[in-house]
Amino acid sequence: MRHMLSSLLVTVLLLGTAVFTASAFEAEGYNTPDSWSMQTTPGQFKQSMTGVGLTKDSRLYMTLTTRLRLRSDEYADDQDIYQYIRLHTDSVKLGNGTMKVAAFGRFAKDINGDSDKEWSDNYFYSQRGILDTEEDMNDFAPRLYHGYVQLDGVVKNTKANIGRFYLEHLNTFQLDGADVTAKLNDMFSVYAYGGRPVSYYYDLDSDSVVGGGAMFNYKGRTKVEAEYASIDVQDIDDDYSKFRVVQFIPGGSLVAGYTVLNDAGTVNLDFDYEFAKTGTIVTIGYEGMNDTVDSDKTYVVNPLTYTLLPQSKYNKYSASVYQAFAKYFAAGFSYETKNVDGTENFDNRDFDKYGFKFDINGLPHPDTYISLTADKWNVNSTEGNSDDNRLMYGCQIGQKVTEKVDVWAGSSFGRYEYDYTTDKRKDSVRSYYVGGQYQPLETLSLMLDVSREDTDFYDDVDSDLSKNYMVELWASIAF
Amino acid sequence: MRSIIIGLMLVFAVAVMAFAVTSEKPSSHDTSWIKRHGKASKLNIEECTACHVEKVSCTKCHEEVAPRTHTPGWVKKGHGLEARWDRNKCAACHKEDSCIECHKSTPPASHRPGWREPLNRHCTTGCHYPVQETTCFTCHKTAHAPNQYSK
What we know:
Chain A has two helices and 24 strands. Chain A is mainly beta.
């Protein structure tokens, strides 16, 4: 907390002495720079804006991206390379409608494999990751995220996706199959889909998801939607239904939803509103599940019930306020609480979570963005387990230097106090990162990001094992 | 404290050199957007895909590149704690196939020589009953008695 307060104090003092005049916000907005997503995940799959000629009136847009990830700690090094391709076409006239194609996928390889493993006196490989698991199953760990053909209006008033795609209905399953939407009039549409669910880990040749639904859309302001899916995966059959009403209002939205997985129903209520005059954003949410979800549900829709066991019924409430003030500043507070109504145990516990945010937008330069965050998570005890909690705070800074150069940096500290079945532990994690992106041409971007983690999480293995370094190098070329 | 001051001085130095650049992002994309974009995207995905073509940037953050919070230390221990505290947060990106398969192929740090027979270091406080109330159960579903394992 001292780190947070001192950061805040110094920042305010320095800003107080700054005499820059800057118009930070466009259209009274507080929008972040294009590179702000780097604060969450580094890297960019650059989008082609020009493309190459495909037919007389359509183009093919393609991007190749190479990513090199290097990791190192006191025990082992790891070097992974990823090659990505994304492409899509303009819509090409076909019959009475149009057709377009899109794809995005990757290959990956652990360059040094297991050769640099330092096993020491145990069987623990500190750089083990999900890519190692995928490579155990398939060489080059291929993933096709989407690869589909879209036919729009080829059959009157219909839109069809064929191939691998993500549904864009109430469900967003990733499927190998087909999805057809028919527009009955300006307000009503119906749809049906079917195919095989996608897993990068399982062979699902004989499995299926089929479903369908209807939507009523009144002038884009009121939506009423209902959908049913039958899921038959790995010898488990699940019925999955969703219903939702959305009412858009000037400055916000009201949403009421109901989801049923076999017998367990979940109610969602959300209110999101922005007071433009005062620069205030308010969100209020409720989620309640009325029955236990047992373990024997398919992984496609289950709430992780194989690893975390049945999910007990619960009520969860959340609220947040975000307030802009004095042209350059914004502060936010959020609160979330969960009350388990059913069986409380190791994996079903009440909690309270508090979040705080303070943002400085446009000081000392119009394209400088600074965000300070803190949150406290209190998890209640259950029989056999005492309270757990986590305190976390950090700072993020982003700066667009020129049209071609972005830089960013950040640091965070986390303190975990938890009952690890037999004893109470306290572990700290501090991390830092700094990075930059250079886009010399509209078609080319280069990125370097370096991060470091200093953690107590390895203390049960070796107190000398605590520092992780990671370097990400990305090169993205668009055609 | 010294590193904070140096950091802020660097920010000022970079800011002085910087040129003002116009952003084309909508005003809704303020720094609170990271927490609000998920629900908003479900209401009107067409609005998102006008810029986020073919949802590639969605796939990047939600499926391909792990967030900065998912450090190697977090992979070792933090994720297990937070998943038990609020599993619904995981489901924003993860389906359970990745949990199961990664756990199957990754022995935890505790499983060193002597973990099983003859030392049986895993059994430090007598036999863990019910095993469902332990971290063992994440992988071992039928460890209902001493010396009986699911794999």
